[in-house]
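Aim 2, interim progress: modelling of the coenzyme A-bound target.
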Amino acid sequence: MKIRRLANEERPTTSWRLQEYAFERSPMPPEEGAKLRGYLPYHEGNITLVVEDGKETLAAVSVIPMRQNVRGTVHPMVGVSGVVSHPLARRQGHVRTLLTQLLGELRDEGYPISALYPFRPSFYGRFGFAALPQPRTVSFSPADLGEWLRADLPGELRWQRIRDGYDAHRALTERLLTSRHGFSLLPDYRDVQRREDDKRWIVSAWHDGEVVGAVTYTIDGHGGTLHADDLLTVNPLGRALLLQFFARHVDQVARISTVVAPDETPELWATDLATHTESRLSFPSSVAPMARLLSVDALRGLPTAPGRVRVDIVDDPFIAGTYLLDGVDGRLEVTHGPGAAPATATAPPVATLTAAGISALAYGVLDPDELPLRGFGTVPPEAATELRSLFPHAVPYLFTDF
Ligand SMILES: CC(C)(COP(=O)(O)OP(=O)(O)OC[C@H]1O[C@@H](n2cnc3c(N)ncnc32)[C@H](O)[C@@H]1OP(=O)(O)O)[C@@H](O)C(=O)NCCC(=O)NCCS
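Predicted structure of the complex, ligand included:
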């Protein structure tokens, strides 16, 4: 058995063959397979490890070098994708070997966090990933947005094909990356696929020369539905301008659906707006994202309230060990190694956590009291108080689908 990193041009004959089998209608007609080569530029910076037995590729794991905001700090993030093994080589530990090796290599190259969309959360739970909330889909009738038609709003709208409006979309997502917890962005070489596929309209809202909102969408026919992707806004004006645009479709479509952050409240967007908001999960095709820390250093310097706790992280190849987490002057200090277990007189309370447990706290999705109930560690009440102060509840919005 040999494990090695692939060169980009090797993908079609190695990892993509396994991915086609696992994720596409298969067997794939040869002409469709040939078309896939055209997608190689969108994978040029991805990193793929494969295991081979001399003749065949037995398993592959790929990652996309991304960026993600965790509580206000943007970190390099490993986006895991293309996890697959040969149908005759499954359940032999190949993916465990590849994923552990690749995450370790990327951690050493400076990526302190990782995120992914699982096919089944329990699989990635074994690798220390914690579940994050699923963005919501809201649908409503444009007729209910009538009040926005009469609103006199500052700013302007631009309506374009995505090939022409792509730069506004990228500028807005770059801005949201710096301001929204959990937001993540694909690298340029991958994100431009939106522009080059040119399968969407984009409407963008502008004020004082800056883009303050944008949404991409398709329409499935007259009297049908306007299917919008994520409704991206930086302020209420951006959202109002986009809702006004939707309202102008009252004679064209019966419904509008759009994706919103998990903590969005669409029922408050207008008076007499009848909304249906849902988050539907099913495996393997519609799943909420997951994320984990690959290095506890990602927490260093986070804005925080006072709190002091020792955390013993167990059962993990990347972050197992003893850490002292101390909120000093509004910032989190992380001490690892000998200084992490101070003398008895000043000893802080101690929590024992799994990688998924500390990751759930870092992303703000579980309360310390939930961790023991879910099998993510042991957290005495005094330690829970400190951890709650250091890691208050937060709602990550992982925007990118990858
Ligand atoms: C899912 C898949 C990638 C697993 O690959 P594999 O090589 O069989 O995985 P491994 O043998 O390395 O198993 C790793 C661990 O996951 C567990 N596992 C395997 N399949 C699982 C499943 N469907 N659900 C939960 N756990 C699973 C194994 O028991 C093993 O646990 P352990 O190491 O803690 O004992 C493979 O079955 C596959 O290619 N499926 C189709 C494509 C797919 O769904 N890919 C995932 C996309 S996100």
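Residues 299-354+366-390 form a domain with the Nonspecific Lipid-transfer Protein; Chain A fold (CATH 3.30.1050.10). The first helix runs from residue 15 to 23.
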